[in-house]
Amino acid sequence: MSQTTDTSRGAAVASGFIVFAGVAMVLIGAFHAFQGLVALFNDDFYVVGQKWIFEFDLTTWGWIHLLVGIGVAVAGFFVFTGAAWARFVGIGVAGLSAVLNFMWLPYYPIWSLVIIALDVAVIWALAVHGKEFAN
């Protein structure tokens, strides 16, 4: 294979991972926002199983999830621009999302683990393949 074929294949793979990261961030942000709205409008929906040290009122959790969700979704849209700052912000908000979902484990454990796994995949895609996608 020629050097240009390898380079174009690498750029295509990088573009695919960045598109995955952007779409995943928009979806993760929407999921956070929906979780937040449910917590704000229906306090009885979430049932706490175990008591953990970082326990908040469900209304507080609702606002946290709503605001972080909006931030993650907006950062996801900016990832599509290919700007370096968008990748750094994306890594930061995906990390924040993972930490918040770890804290949310007592309320919705399996869902939280799924979102944490998606956040880790987003961080990996932005950190490893972001440079090839940049304008």
From TrEMBL:
Going by the UniProt record, its keywords in alphabetical order are:
Membrane, Transmembrane, Transmembrane helix
Its organism's taxonomic lineage begins at: Bacteria, Bacillati, Actinomycetota, Actinomycetes, Nakamurellales
Q: Which InterPro entries match?
A: DUF7144
Protein's name in the database: DUF7144 domain-containing protein
Pinpoint the DUF7144 domain residues.
18-130
Q: Which residues cross the membrane?
A: 12-41, 61-80, 85-104, 110-128
Keyword Lipid biosynthesis belongs to the record: no
**Pfam families with a match to the protein in the record:** DUF7144
Keyword Transmembrane helix assigned to the entry: answer is yes
